[in-house]
Write the structure tokens for this entry.
Amino acid sequence: MARALSGLGITPEWVMVDGSYYPPVSIPGETVIKGDLLIPCISAASILAKVARDNEMSFIEGVYPGYDFDSHKGYPTKKHLEQIQTLGVLPIHRRSFAPVKKVLAIY
């Protein structure tokens, strides 16, 4: 989120974050646990983020076919975890994700 905030063309006066972690930024704001259920602007931002991620996952399936990105949209489904084991770890996989760490430890 810090990277997203720093990439804005404007500096917000206040930031509302869904959850309990506030990013290390100098912009004032607050965290709201379950904010996507309680605050309309957080709900809208969550929808926009999900649509953007889903579109990116469909694009990534074209770049890295066989991982089923266009179906699971980045969630660790059983098939995707199997594909990581079978096809290996990609540059786009998060190294901090436990199944990815496990595959990398084998090599």
Notes: The radius of gyration is 17 Å.
